[in-house]
Every structure is written in C-alpha cells, then in structure tokens.
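REQUEST ID: PR-0412
SUBMITTED BY: lab tech R.K.
PRIORITY: routine
TASK: structure prediction, single protein chain
INPUT:
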Amino acid sequence: MATLAAIFNLLMCISRDAHADSLEAESALGDATKAHALLVVKHLRTLYLLHRGKVIARYPVQLGRHPQGPKTKAHDGRTPEGQYVIDWRDPLSLYTLALHISYPNDHDREQARALGVDPGGAIEIHGQPFVDGAYSAQQLQSDWTAGCIALSAGDMANLWGKVDVGTPVEIKP
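STATUS: complete
OUTPUT:
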C-alpha cells in the first residue's frame, strides 16, 4: 500500500485540471489492462484505477449522503476511509454491477467496539440503480448512497472488466 500513498501524495501536488489530459491518454492506453489497485479520493469525488504505480483511468464518483469523515457505525451515511480489498463481485446487483469492499476491516471493528456500535457493512463500488426500466440519472447529481462509492452505469461497466477479486482499495479523505 506504500505505492498508493505515494500516488496519493503525487495527485495532491498536481492540480486536477492540469493532469486531466494525461490521465485520459493513459486511460485510452490501458483499456485492456487490469488494475493492480484502486484509489478513491473522497474530497475530489474521484476513483483512480492504478496499474504498476500509474494512473490508467479515473472516474467521477458519488459517496454516502454524509461524505465528511470516515464511516464509524451502521447507517451513518458515510463512506469508509482506510485500506480494503475487493472481496467479491456481484454481476446481478440492483446497482449496475457491484464490487464488494472488505469493510469493516480489523481497525474499523476495533473502533466500533470501542464506541459500542455496529460498524455496518455491505459497502460496494457500484453503478447507478436500474429502476422502472431505466438508469436513474438523478443519482449522478450529488452524494446519495448509504456509504458506497457510486459511478455512472457506463463507467461501472468499464471498471468491472478491469478489477478482480483481491484488488487492493485505498479510500482517502
């Protein structure tokens, strides 16, 4: 995970707009490339797909309805922060495919235990909901999930083919 921290620091030093063109070029080159890791930067509302220490794609995301701070308990509407792994894939999700994140990890469980609360679970990276025969466009406007990381249906379909079970995920504030 040291590589993810180094990439995060690099991303923080470069303005988002200044490197957008190079990210798009890398994304085009990496269409068939599998991710070695995912990095989610909550305050940028961006998921970065990483391969051998390089950003090969980025996706805008929406978060839990209360995005500030890490998830501390079930039903708090927050997206967790920390280091996780994709531990299973759900092709039949109601949310246009889903990659389950291994939340809560040991640290999350210990914090919840200290607070005397349930840490919650069922945190995923998923696409838009499919409701009444159509994708819900309103969810692309603001943070709306119960704590998950959401992408457009098209972006999720693209990400789906690049992420395997076991892929590390780091979620930063």
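NOTES: The domain at 2-172 is CATH 2.40.440.10 (L,D-transpeptidase catalytic domain-like).
REVIEWED BY: pending
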